[in-house]
Design goal:
Helix content is 34%, strand content 23%. The protein is an alpha/beta fold and 593 residues long. It binds fructose -6-phosphate.
């Protein structure tokens, strides 16, 4: 959450580069945005409420002065935590004498005490943010020089942060991190710092990861320090193999539909893994005394699906829990346990905290991530990259199905049937490729038109597809803003069926497996109360008022069945005039707790 982008280098249009970089990070927060840029010996700031995407660089006159050469600038796109969505609360924040500017992602837990102390010292606050304490703390120590003042200020902070600092008096860019991501991009006589790699991918693929409790000071070259020991550290340059074009919308109107369509290829990419590595991980799962699948939101639903996949395919009990709930389960963890963390970004704060808890107990950690070099990738004993390519729409689609594919593959590997698992998934990938055609999209659009004005809808599933009913509901909620809930079909009669009235849309995910007859029976119960049944199933049935055909994919059915619901959510968002890429109140990569 919150996008950060900074430039320091030989080019003279740093402000423009920062605005363009921020536009690529907008999915991380879109309540407000701002830039601070250094010209001669002055820090200039421009901020506004709303999305940076609509800011027109050609018509910036009177807002930002692009005529002055500028080689040092920082910018921020905000997802509000402390303080409402106002210009005052937008970042960057300035010291009272306008000499220092900072941007920040994270939450400073002890900001209230720090603020009280600073007010007693005479500092005046212009915003309601936790961030503003940092800039005043730096100013309070500025006699030490900017670098040491930042080190000193950071020492007072409790919580998670990624902070960038510039000042009018020194031509350096400083960044510090604990818990929120920051990556340094190294170009030809120029450096970038961003919350996510795609933001600077068009300029460089060479990156250096800033780790927790580290700081970087960029003058002509970056110098990294350990904030705990104060010692300088060497950083390895890592070459990223993402293509800049992968992070663009191309011919598609939205990232969400582009990413849904990419599922024609992403499953095959996901399962193309080093076999020895998969077998080694399968051994670790077999050996573990207690395995926990941990993720948040959609990744949490994938974890629940993982429990079902391991039970059915490998006859193994694997627990699953949300990252935010895991600390309450930690007493079960020992040095013989294994945690499998599932995360697209590899940066989700709740999942990271769960990993920290597991590591403290000396448990082993496997991460299933989409971002190589992400915090989770680096802190785990093993990682599997799902290779879905950059996912920019806030609502996860292609990463979800690739995560499911990896868990399915692992379950087969644990069962000693890796080849069988591969064949199943290769076939599923080819069926998805056939399914995602323009006629299919049109049919889903017809359904969206029928149900777009409903206030509530429900999704039911059973067995492997119960977690997909829950995931369907998340997808529908977050982009269509229609109240949607997912249930285990058998649970309806224990309460939720009271919510069904005439024409209430109810999606029944009906796999062609041992659950088929029961889930059809549950759909019938809904229909008998007037519900409008949308069947997601390989075969039509007289119970269905609307049938969405899906290929029969056996144990890969969760992967195949979620795709039409992703498309439905997208179509509903577009018809209801919502922006599917940037749903209200949300942001991608949830780096706050
Ligand atoms: C919903 C969605 C979120 C994420 C969750 C975890 O469509 O994308 O629920 O799944 O915030 O994010 P990652 O996978 O980055 O850990």
């Amino acid at each position: 959450m919150c996008g950060i982008f900074a430039y320091k280098g030989s080019k003279k249009n740093a402000t423009e580069l920062v605005i363009q970089g921020l536009k690529k990070l907008e999915y991380r927060g879109y309540d407000s945005w701002g830039v601070a840029y250094k010209t001669d010996s002055k820090i200039n700031v421009y901020k506004e409420v709303g999305k940076i995407g609509s800011f027109d660089l050609q018509n910036a006159e009177g807002k930002i002065d692009f005529s002055l050469p500028c080689s040092l600038a920082v910018g921020h796109s905000r997802w509000a935590t402390h303080g409402g969505v106002t210009v005052e609360n937008a970042h960057p924040h300035l010291s009272s004498d306008n000499s220092i500017a900072i941007v920040h992602n994270g939450i400073i837990e002890n900001y209230a005490e720090l603020k009280k102390d600073l007010i007693n010292k005479g500092y005046k606050f212009k915003s309601e943010t936790d961030t503003e304490v940092i800039v005043h703390l730096i100013h309070d120590n500025i006699k030490l020089g900017l670098t040491d003042a930042v080190k000193k200020a950071i020492g007072y902070l409790h919580g998670r942060y990624a902070v960038l600092v510039i000042s009018k008096d020194e031509n350096i860019l400083i960044a510090a991190r604990r818990g929120s991501p920051l990556i340094v991009g190294s170009g030809e006589k120029e450096f970038f710092i961003a919350s996510d790699i795609p933001a600077f991918l068009e300029y460089t693929r060479k990156v250096m990861y800033l780790d927790d409790n580290q700081m970087v000071v960029i003058n002509d070259r970056p110098e990294f320090f350990d904030l705990e020991t104060g010692k300088q550290i060497e950083k390895r340059i890592v070459e990223i193999n993402w293509d800049a074009k992968e992070a663009e919308k191309g011919e598609f109107p939205h990232f969400m539909i582009k990413e849904i369509m990419e599922q024609k290829e992403t499953i095959s990419r996901a399962i193309n893994q080093d076999e020895d590595k998969i077998l080694k991980i399968a051994e670790a799962i077999k050996k573990a005394y207690g395995t926990y699948l941990i993720g948040c939101g959609t990744a949490g639903k994938v974890c629940l699906a993982g429990s079902y996949l391991f039970a059915k395919i490998a006859k193994r009990h694997v627990n699953s829990a949300f990252g935010s709930e895991f600390p309450s389960l930690q007493d079960f963890i020992t040095d013989k346990s294994l945690m499998i963390a599932v995360s697209q970004s590899g940066e989700t704060a709740d999942t990271l905290e769960a990993i920290e808890v597991a590591k403290k107990k000396n448990a082993k950690v496997l991460s299933i991530i989409n971002v190589e070099g992400s915090s989770m990738d680096r802190m785990s004993d093993y990682s599997i990259n799902i290779k879905a390519g950059p996912e920019k729409a806030v609502a996860s689609t292609k990463a979800t199905t690739s995560q499911l594919a990896i868990l399915t593959l692992l379950a087969y590997a644990v069962a000693g049937k890796l080849d069988e698992g591969k064949i199943l998934l290769v076939e599923a990938a080819s069926k998805i490729n056939d399914m995602l055609n323009p006629r299919y999209e049109e049919r889903i659009k017809t359904l969206a038109e029928k149900i777009m004005n409903h206030e509530s809808m429900y999704v039911i599933g059973k067995g492997l597809n119960y977690p997909m009913a829950l995931e369907s509901a998340i997808k529908l909620q977050e982009v269509s803003y229609i109240h949607a809930e997912g249930f285990a079909g058998g649970e309806l009669k224990h309460g939720p069926i009271a919510l069904i009235s005439k024409d209430t849309p109810c999606i029944a995910i009906v796999a062609n497996d041992e659950t088929k007859h029961e889930i059809l029976g549950n759909a019938m119960e809904v229909k008998a109360r007037g519900g409008y049944i949308i069947g997601v199933s390989p075969e039509n049935n007289e119970i269905f008022d609307f049938w969405i055909k899906v290929p029969d994919a056996g144990n890969a059915s969760p992967i195949v069945n979620i795709i039409p619901v992703q498309l439905l959510a997208y179509q509903l968002a577009v018809l209801r005039k919502n922006n599917p890429d940037m749903p209200r109140n949300l942001a991608k990569s949830v780096t706050v707790k």
